[in-house]
Design goal:
The structure holds three protein chains of three kinds.
Chain A lengths: L7 E14 L9 E14 L3 E5 L6 H8 L7 E6 L2 E2 L5 H8 L2 E4 L13 H11 L5 H14 L16 H13 L5 E5 L7 H18 L2 E6 L2 H7 L2 E6 L2 E7 H6 L4 H9 L51 E4 L2 E3 L22
Parallel strand pairs in A: 3-8, 3-9, 6-7, 7-8
Antiparallel strand pairs in A: 1-2, 1-4, 4-5, 9-10, 10-12, 11-12
Helix pairs in contact in A: 3-4, 3-5, 4-5, 5-6
Chain B lengths: L8 H11 L2 H18 L1 H4 L33 H37 L1 H16 L2 H12 L4 H10 L2 H16 L2 H9 L3 H37 L11 H7 L8 H29 L4
Chain C lengths: L8 E12 L2 E13 L4 E5 L6 H8 L7 E3 L4 E4 L2 E2 L5 H7 L4 E4 L3 H4 L6 H12 L4 H14 L5 H4 L9 H13 L5 E5 L7 H18 L2 E6 L2 H7 L2 E6 L2 E7 H6 L4 H9 L41 H5 L5 E2 L5 E2 L26
Parallel strand pairs in C: 3-9, 3-10, 7-8, 8-9
Antiparallel strand pairs in C: 1-2, 1-4, 1-5, 5-6, 10-11, 11-13, 12-13
Helix pairs in contact in C: 4-5, 4-7, 5-7, 7-8
Classes of the chains: A alpha/beta, B mainly alpha, C alpha/beta.
């Protein structure tokens, strides 16, 4: 079991989510799309675990399955020791209060027919935490905490910008006083200058409210800013898991290295774009045998053995996990990432 | 208090767009006029609809200044009958569609939200009902009923008009179910009932309203047909359809008995459809 | 690349206004720029800057309620694209100027195979047989790096991955070897590894065809990687223009500086607990630009002149221009108020 030193707040063990490919009205499944395939990780109190991957890696599906917003096909999820998958409806609803979700798309995560105030207040209503003027106060506080003036409560989502809507989404999640917050790409739909505001906000809130974050992103630059530990996903599985600094300095897996090398640096003096990784992610309906990364893997030591078994995620060094049957080559820091200019 | 926010905001924008549609506004004016004189029939009509005027001199008279729509074989003023008939025809149509909308929405919402086997079964039932030609169904029911009361007619027409609404609602609910703000409500811990009533239904209000508006025109035609055939609105009530019935034997000679109620039906239905179409265009924001 | 060669594309004082319920939205308000043959110009801006509207207007793709205001001039190789007749415009579209959009799924017709769509571009502009056009389409697919091109050409857009679809878009835009490619956020919807592939492909094709590229994006890292000259847009105007190295090393306009400081860097040595410098406030709506300099209410250096007087594009050197009064009064550039502003929304 992959565990960190302190008792984890959230733990996923062998979590799998398979979607059937059905055919016909009452047809039986032709096959399965293994969106998430045997994912295990823990999140300790107060830390930020980043789940990184490209489209089709299964990171959003993992998050939703963790919160039981979609049913997991197999595996365990525990929150503060409680088995989430086994809960019945009412205890599950009570548990939801403690784990909340901030959505990626601020334009679709708010009910267009509800005012901001109503949206933020909904959590209080559902969990019967407050009503009337007590609820109004809490809504006002939540709005102020996310940097919106209280009179925003009367506005409709269509009157707000993307950044403002995202703040409303955060306020909505915050008002029920959760312990665990899943941030599903919270800034990828926003402009750069707004991204910075929201990232700062999330970090302040984490500090002020002692929150634990699961941060899902495809933007490694943002992840470097906010994460304590990083899990890299590829094709439904975690292929590397390490503390953030270690992952960026010294990635063990060729996929991680390729991801890092593909990240463009805002520095014209840096290496010009060249293709580090050819091809694309495999189609979810046609999984390659064994290691899913094998067809694209640039490691010269790859061989037929890689296609016979799905490499398990193993601890290669203290706190460093990788899913590769070959021993990882420890590299010095990649020279193609010069330090950015220190800004005045 | 979290209620159904049917206020301001989105509806004002819809009204603004509707206003710009000249055809729809013309239809609105026409149908309001027809509804107004129908509702105000007791004040506007020169005679009572069943008043038998001079049995000899005023039997089956062509339109004249005294009787702009003529008189029928029972010596009743046709204008008054058309006005009072409007009350009946329109009221039946509106009430029937309201019934249809309610039943259809509930049925479609449950089918769409729950999904799975229940959805399959419910939809197959609807398909089966839809495959029976409505006229035949209505004719059979009404004929078997004998002399249906107005309430019975509303019920029968309503309960045979909800299939389309239910499919529409089901489709909308299924589409909305996966929207992020619905997932957000579930993530907050809302129960299914809460999500359905507080989130989904208010958002399907506009397509349902549009479908209902368009359906009203349809029911006016159906009721007119049934009444014309004698199995719809029964005397002593007048309806546009059964006025035409009175002139059915001698359509050429007693043309005014077919033309004027017919014109009323046609203008009402066209106006209602224009309003319904205008609503649909106005409610569908295109950037 | 200024000098004797005339520019391939020359935009002068372009103004585009949209009629909205809230009044006229001046989406593009006086933009002047030039693109020379063979170079890559990057247009950088966030949403509300007018960059995409400007890109569409080059090929006169703006529809009512938007319109290009009189006095605007867009000249391509001597031809005035704003006022020319439709036949000349159509001869240019797809043939001499190619365009690639952000979302390939919506830009491709779902009921035609991708091979057909590429071949159609050829058939519209050149007299050729169906077979010849198809062969060229397949060749182009190969050139943009689509494996098994002949098979792929027979597939429909929904059967292809995002990266492949974007390659198809590139193939369509480039099959007739245009002199200029306009790419509007071509990689925003793609994964990071695929983005690297597409940008590398673009660089190769550009080299091979000797064409100019006008790349529109919000991502400064992309322009750093591929552009030779950068124009930063804000509030419907160009606010800074410079060669790419100079922009990143010595940006002048406070908005550009703010953007550069707001980018998270993939290097945890800057400190995980550190805060990103933010630009306070939000982009104002195009219906209500602030008076004077459009950035003044968010600028850490602003003073009275900024509110009262719209700054012209001051020339800092032959190649570097900045729309900021600090060029005239450099002493006003005090140390920025703690770059890490609070994340609250001021009177917006």
């Amino acid at each position: 079991m992959i565990a960190s030193p302190t008792a984890p707040l959230v733990a996923a063990r062998d979590l799998s989510v398979h979607f059937p490919i059905t055919h016909g009205v009452f047809g039986s499944p032709l096959g399965w799309v293994r969106a998430v395939d045997g994912v295990s990780f823990t999140v300790s109190r107060g830390e930020t675990l980043a789940l990184v991957g490209e489209s089709g890696s299964g990171k959003t599906t993992t998050a939703r399955a963790l919160l039981r917003l979609i049913p997991a096909t197999s595996g365990d999820v525990s929150f503060d020791g409680v088995d989430v998958r086994a809960l019945r409806a009412a205890p599950l609803r009570r548990l939801r209060r403690r784990m909340q979700l901030v959505f990626q798309d601020p334009y679709s995560s708010l009910n267009p027919r509800r005012t901001v105030g109503e949206a933020v207040r909904e959590g209080l209503l559902v969990h019967r935490l407050a009503d009337g003027s007590a609820a109004d106060d809490r809504v006002r506080n939540a709005l102020e905490e996310v940097g919106l003036r209280p009179d925003f409560a009367h506005r409709y989502p269509y009157e707000l910008s993307g950044g403002q809507r995202q703040r409303v989404g955060i306020a909505r999640a915050l008002v029920v006083e959760p312990e665990f917050l899943v941030c599903d790409e919270p800034v990828s739909a926003l402009d750069v200058s707004v991204q910075a505001q929201i990232i700062n906000l999330l970090q302040d809130l984490q500090r002020d409210h002692h929150l634990t974050y699961l941060y899902i992103a495809h933007d490694l630059a943002v992840v470097a800013q906010v994460a304590t530990r990083v899990a890299v996903m590829y094709f439904g599985r975690i292929v590397e898991l390490a503390p953030a600094a270690a992952l960026f300095h010294d990635p063990l897996m060729p996929y991680t290295r390729a991801l890092l090398a593909s990240v463009l640096v805002p520095d014209p003096m840096a290496r010009r774009a060249h293709t580090v990784l050819a091809g694309e992610s495999p189609s979810p309906t046609a999984p390659p045998p064994g290691c899913a990364f094998y067809p694209r893997c640039p490691d010269p030591r790859k061989d037929a053995a890689c296609t016979t078994v799905v490499p398990p995620l193993e601890e290669k060094a203290p706190g460093r996990f990788a899913a590769c049957i070959k021993e990882p080559v420890r590299l010095a820091r990649i020279p193609s990432h010069p330090s950015p200019d220190p800004q005045p | 208090m979290i209620g159904w926010s049917l206020d301001a905001g989105p509806w004002r924008a819809i009204w603004r767009r509707f206003r710009r549609n000249r055809g729809a506004m013309a239809g609105l004016v026409v149908i309001i006029a027809i509804a107004a004189v129908s509702i105000g029939a007791p004040l506007v009509a020169p005679y009572s609809p069943n008043a038998i005027l001079d049995m000899v001199a005023l039997k089956s008279q062509a339109p004249s200044l005294a009787h702009p729509f003529g008189t029928d074989p029972a010596s009743r003023d046709v204008l008054s009958r058309v006005l009072f008939g409007g009350r009946v025809s329109l009221a039946i149509a509106v009430l029937a569609m309201l019934t249809a909308a309610t039943v259809g929405t509930m049925y479609g919402a449950i089918s769409g939200y729950v999904g799975g086997v229940l959805d399959d079964v419910l939809m197959r039932v609807t398909d089966a009902c839809l495959s029976i030609p409505r006229i035949l169904l209505l004719l059979t029911i009404c004929a078997l009923w004998g002399r249906p009361s107005l309430g019975a007619l509303v019920l029968v027409l309503g309960l045979t008009s909800w299939f389309g609404v239910s499919r529409l609602v089901r489709a909308e609910i299924m589409a909305l179910r996966t929207r992020e703000w619905v997932v957000a409500a579930r993530a907050l811990g809302a129960s299914d009932a809460h999500v359905l009533f507080r989130h989904l239904l208010p958002n399907i209000a506009s397509p349902v309203i549009v479908a209902t508006a368009l359906g009203i025109g349809n029911v006016v035609l159906l009721e007119a047909g049934l009444s014309y055939l004698g199995v719809g609105v029964q005397p002593p009530f007048a309806s546009w359809g059964n006025i035409m019935q009175d002139g059915a034997d001698e359509v050429r000679a007693l043309w005014w008995l077919s033309v004027f109620p017919g014109l009323a039906i046609v203008s009402a239905v066209i106006a209602i459809n224009a309003v319904g179409d205008g609503l649909r265009e106005a409610a569908d924001p295109r950037q | 690349m200024t000098g004797a060669t005339p520019p391939l594309l020359s935009i002068r004082d372009l103004r585009i206004v949209f009629a909205t319920a809230a009044g006229p939205a001046r989406a593009v308000d006086g933009v002047t720029l030039a693109v020379y043959p063979g170079e890559t110009v990057g247009i950088v801006g966030e949403s509300g800057s007018g960059k995409s509207v400007m890109a569409l207007s080059i090929l006169r793709l703006i529809r009512p309620p938007g319109r290009i205001e009189p006095g605007s001039s867009v000249t391509f190789d001597g031809l005035d694209l704003v006022s020319c007749d439709v036949t000349s415009l159509r001869a240019i579209r797809g043939r001499r100027i190619g365009m690639v959009f952000q979302e390939p799924m919506t830009a491709l017709n779902p009921v035609f195979t991708v091979g057909d769509q590429i071949a159609e571009v050829i058939r519209v502009h050149e007299p050729t047989t169906n077979a010849a056009a198809w062969a060229r389409a397949v060749a182009m697919l190969r050139a943009v790096g689509v494996p098994a091109a002949a098979d792929r050409a027979r597939q429909y857009p929904h059967e292809l991955s995002g990266g492949t679809r974007q390659r198809v878009m590139l193939a369509m835009a480039l099959v007739l070897r245009p002199g200029l490619l306009i790419a509007d956020e071509p990689t925003t919807a793609l994964d990071v590894t695929v983005q690297a592939q597409i940008l590398a492909l673009l660089a190769d094709l550009q080299q091979e065809m000797g064409m100019a590229v006008l790349l529109i994006t919000h991502d400064l890292a992309i322009v750093a990687t591929v552009a030779s000259r950068v124009i930063v847009m804000y509030g419907g105007q160009a606010v800074e223009e410079a060669p790419v190295e100079e922009l990143f090393a010595a940006a002048h306009h406070p908005y550009t500086e703010g953007l550069l400081r707001a980018i998270p860097r993939p290097d945890p040595e800057s400190g995980r607990a550190g805060r990103l410098a933010v630009i306070p406030g939000t982009v104002p709506p195009a219906t209500a630009w602030p008076s004077g300099c459009r950035f003044h209410d968010r600028c850490p250096f602003a003073w009275d002149r900024c509110r009262d007087e719209m700054p012209p594009l001051y020339a800092l050197s032959a190649t570097h221009a900045s729309r900021c009064h600090l060029a005239a009064e450099p002493a006003r550039r005090t140390a920025p108020r703690a770059g890490e502003m609070a994340h609250t929304e001021p009177r917006s």
